[in-house]
Amino acid sequence: MFNSLSDRLTDTFRNLKRKGSLSETDVNKTVRDIRMALLDADVALPVVKQFTGSVRERALGAEVSQALNPGQQVVKIVNEELVSILGGATRRLNLAKNPPTVIMLAGLQGSGKTTLAGKLGYWLKDQGHAPLLVAADLQRPNAVTQLEVVGERAGVSVFAPERGNVFGHDAALESGEGTRSFGDPIDVAIDGVAHARDKGFDVVIIDTAGRLAVDVDLMRQAHDIRMETNADEVLFVIDAMIGQAAVDTAKAFSDGVGITGSVLTKLDGDARGGAALSVATVTGEPILFASTGEGVKDFETFHPDRMASRILD
Ligand code: GDP
Hints:
EC number: 3.6.5.4
Number of strands: 9
Enzyme class: hydrolase
Bound molecules: guanosine-5'-diphosphate
Protein name: Signal recognition particle protein
Shape: elongated
Number of helices: 11
Domain SRP54-type proteins GTP-binding: 286-299
Radius of gyration: 22 Å
Helix content: 40-55%
Keywords: Cytoplasm, GTP-binding, Hydrolase, Nucleotide-binding, Ribonucleoprotein, RNA-binding, Signal recognition particle
Structural class: alpha/beta
């Protein structure tokens, strides 16, 4: 990802760094080049405008530096502005003072929520937590089974719709493959949290339903799950490949459900990077994690500064 954007910016900066002095014309040309590169990478227009506006203003007003030549100074400004639109400082997961911490995953169908639930569970377990996955996606017939498979792979327990039943790894004894009544997802989420509290799981990860397009009913359902479970984190899961559509989707989830952060998935693909560069600005909330493949370990904490360096180096 970001290859083409990175190549374009590197070219722009190569010329810039050679210059001993920088005129307003040079700055304007650089800002134009950056704007084109970002638009070609599918970054949302308001984000591009905000970004180039800040870069231009700061580049023109930049103090003369002893250490950096004018070109290097602009590169530094671009780096800082990139870190800023990617969310600023690295944001850690917000863990509740009184466990269980409730983390809810929301996003379109296919964005990678269920896969992420397993990764997040695996990662938390690795850090000494006792996570529980809760299957509150009752929209797709296979979603519950899929979460159980994911949980098994990650070695993390799964709470599925049939009340009180825990399917999965270390809870296999308690479960039975009985018939399932696919009830109300809100009830399942509430029961899942209660079950975690009873059994000593300290983090609950709730997988919720998604549609291929934004859907008012599902949005309300996700909103209600959030309120009823008093979720500590509502993570908007977004496929980095979706390009310009990222903006409307992110805004819809942000307004309709209320989110506390985002997770970018499919960063291993050849997306141009627009969604990654737009989502923090559009939602006003940081990106917490990145998903980089289908395997349970293909997952990392998102560091805006490292991502900016990856784009600019
Ligand atoms: P959900 O509908 O939001 O729960 O999405 P899923 O978790 O079912 O993921 C949809 C598809 O994307 C599945 O085929 C996953 O294996 C795949 N997937 C999820 N995350 C990633 C990722 O980070 N990289 C790649 N390459 N594929 C992913």
